[in-house]
Amino acid sequence: MMTKLGVLLAGRGAVAGAEVRDALAGAGLTMRSAFTLTHLAGGPVNQQTLIDLLGVDPSALVTVLNELEAAGLVSRQRDPADRRRHIVVITAAGSRVLTVADQVLDKADENLFAALSPSEREQLQGLLAKVADSGSCGEKY
């Protein structure tokens, strides 16, 4: 009997998730904080847009932003166009931490996908992106 793809992916996903969480913890981040910083790396984003991009409950994002702000990795500023809104900006320290996170994640990928050639890794990335884009995977974080 062939193993179901979802079961196989869930099993490897648990292993990959643990390795990625450990790698990020070494950089002082969680998965949620890393996703958030990644979205802010391109420039300031208003908080509501960030909620939409990450596909999360507003209270979950506020918790992450509070942690990142306390660590000096992001700052929130009032939107001059609408004082009710906040603009979230990655700080220089946040950018440095994100660079470290990228490096530790590269190492985690090397460990997780050592058996795959570069073209197989690219193919897997494309297939997983296609599954994620189908909307069948739930929240992004």
TrEMBL record:
The record's InterPro entries line, in alphabetical order, gives: HTH_MarR-typ, MarR/SlyA-like, WH-like_DNA-bd_sf, WH_DNA-bd_sf
Q: Return any one Pfam family short name.
A: MarR_2
Protein's UniProt keywords contain Cell division = no
PROSITE patterns (UniProt xref)? HTH_MARR_2 (PS50995)
Say if the entry is tagged with keyword Disulfide bond.
no
Q: Which residue range or ranges hold the HTH marR-type domain?
A: 1-133
Which key words tag this protein in UniProt? DNA-binding, Transcription, Transcription regulation
Q: Which PANTHER family match?
A: TRANSCRIPTIONAL REGULATOR SLYA, TRANSCRIPTIONAL REGULATOR, MARR FAMILY
Listed name of the protein: Winged helix-turn-helix transcriptional regulator
